[in-house]
Specification:
single chain, mainly alpha, three-stranded mixed beta sheet, three-stranded antiparallel beta sheet, 18 helices, globular
């Protein structure tokens, strides 16, 4: 035998050894129903790998709002519909608060930070993050002023195109990223700054690569995937460069740190390191700081900028809605600077923004949850450690709560008198103890950016262009690249 044959034989032998060892995960009594898995591959053959939420919605029609699916040898549970998701994440919040072992994310983040952290480490990091984001302006006038300043920079950037067609992705992404940068680093980047462009490029690449079939392969058969080339290797390369940038940043800030004049979240973390040696060794170490900042950067960049890109695309699709929003802006704000205090006086604009977020459907599923112990939930047995995916898409498309779930329909958030009405199934940021820590900030950014842009511009498609609402491939539900014309008003 040649060397290649020997190596392949070893890989195949190890593969099947792992398969047989994994057979310990047998069917449980009263485990949620699901499609019959095939040996070794499970249900991968029926999955829409690029858009798994579509498969989940189809399976929910057959099996109900709680069902199981098997990828490789690992079983997962899917929860669908607002009532079921709420029952788990709110009514049984303490039980559904953990994260399962997901090989790719475990190998990348190693349980650090906030998104993938578990146990006491997660509690400490979430408490620290919420406290300091509020302390450094989230939900306060200070960060509102910062958003307003950044809005002016974005408006000037859009004016520079002089009504000619352009792709708005980089400019909007840069503007939103600068808000996160201000909370973490107390600075902003010019939109053409190479560091900012590289940082955004890394995050965008990671988001797209995470939808690759190689990610599913890695999570199903990590022992095999590690031996093969594929998108997972590029993810590890990008994450390393991303983390190296973050480490360089807080190392530089450590040199300038004044514990009596803490400027941002990183300063607060570095100060914590000096306050309590035992706590520093356990929680406030550099690995946690790197992962935490990476989580906040990534979340702050991707979701809000994607929502704003959906907003402009939808306003071009529905010019009559764009005009009604502009009419309300003129009536309530006039030529003054839009601020959060105006929102209560602008029910139609508020409804349109909520519908943009609902229809845009950025986070189709939550990151997997798991239970803290074996439990029985709604008549089904759920063992500790099994991955549980909340299909947020199913809540935002829940026919019991939204009259026209598959259409863009701002009236979902308006009553018969034209006043804004809340809809409890509107949970794009998830709910419960693992809900997005940046929800308040994101809502503020979206309102101020959106109203300021529509106050200054009418957005139109370039002559002859066709509008496409089909989402791009990626772990988030983002619009495909498009060009627009920003016509000053």
């Amino acid at each position: 035998m040649d060397l290649v044959t020997v190596l392949l034989s070893i890989i195949v032998i190890l593969f099947f050894v792992k398969v047989f060892k994994s057979q310990k995960q047998q069917n449980y009594k009263n485990f949620p129903p699901g499609p019959t898995p095939l040996p070794i591959i499970g249900n991968i053959h029926i999955m829409d790998i690029r858009k798994p939420h579509k498969t989940f919605m189809q399976l929910a029609e057959k099996y109900g709002t709680i069902f199981s699916i098997q990828l490789g040898m690992s079983k997962s549970i899917i929860l669908c519909g607002y009532e079921t998701i709420k029952d788990a994440l709110v009514n049984h919040a303490e039980l559904f608060v953990e994260r399962p072992h997901i090989p790719l994310f475990t190998d990348i983040m190693k349980g650090q930070g906030i998104v993938f952290a578990t146990g006491e480490n997660w509690k400490v990091m979430r408490r620290f993050t919420l406290s300091n984001l509020r302390g450094y302006g989230m939900g306060k006038k200070t960060i509102e002023d910062r958003i307003i300043e950044e809005t002016e920079c974005l408006i000037q950037k859009l004016r520079s195109y002089k009504e000619k067609p352009f792709d708005n992705a980089t400019s909007i992404n840069a503007a939103v990223t600068n808000i996160t940068v201000s909370l973490l680093l107390s600075k902003r980047f010019d939109y053409e700054d190479p560091t900012l462009l590289r940082l955004m490029g890394l995050v965008n690449d990671i988001v797209q690569l995470l939808s690759s079939p190689w990610v599913i392969l890695y999570n199903c058969y990590p022992f095999l995937a590690k031996c093969l080339p594929g998108a997972h290797n590029k993810i590890f390369q990008n994450v390393k460069e991303y983390h190296d940038f973050i480490r360089w940043t807080f190392t530089k800030q450590r040199e300038e740190l004044d514990v009596n004049d803490q400027r941002n979240l990183i300063d607060a973390f570095l100060t914590k390191q000096q306050e309590d040696k035992a706590e520093f060794l356990k929680y406030f170490h550099n690995e946690n700081l790197t992962a935490l900042v990476a989580d906040l950067f990534g979340a702050g960049m991707e979701t809000t900028s994607t929502t704003l890109r959906w907003a402009i695309l939808l306003m071009m699709k529905y010019p009559e809605i764009q005009q009604k929003v502009q009419n309300e802006i003129e009536r309530v704000i006039g030529s003054a600077q839009p601020q959060m205090e105006h929102r209560k006086q602008m029910p139609y604009t508020d409804a349109v923004i909520h519908e943009i977020i609902r229809f845009g459907d950025i986070a189709l599923v939550t990151f997997p949850h798991s239970t803290t112990q074996d439990i029985t939930f709604r008549g089904y047995f759920i063992p500790k450690g099994v991955a549980i995916i909340m299909l947020l898409h199913s809540a935002l498309r829940d026919k019991d709560y939204f009259e026209k779930p598959d259409e863009f329909y701002p009236e979902h958030f308006l009553n018969s008198d034209g006043n804004f009405k809340k809809n409890e199934a509107f949970i794009p940021f998830s709910i419960g103890k693992r809900s997005c820590v940046g929800e308040t900030l994101a809502k503020m950014e979206i309102f101020i950016f959106f109203t300021s842009l529509l106050q200054n511009f009418t957005f139109q498609l370039p002559p002859g262009a066709k509008l496409d609402l089909t989402p791009a491939i990626g772990i988030t539900n983002s619009p495909k690249s498009y060009e627009m014309c920003a016509v000053p008003r």
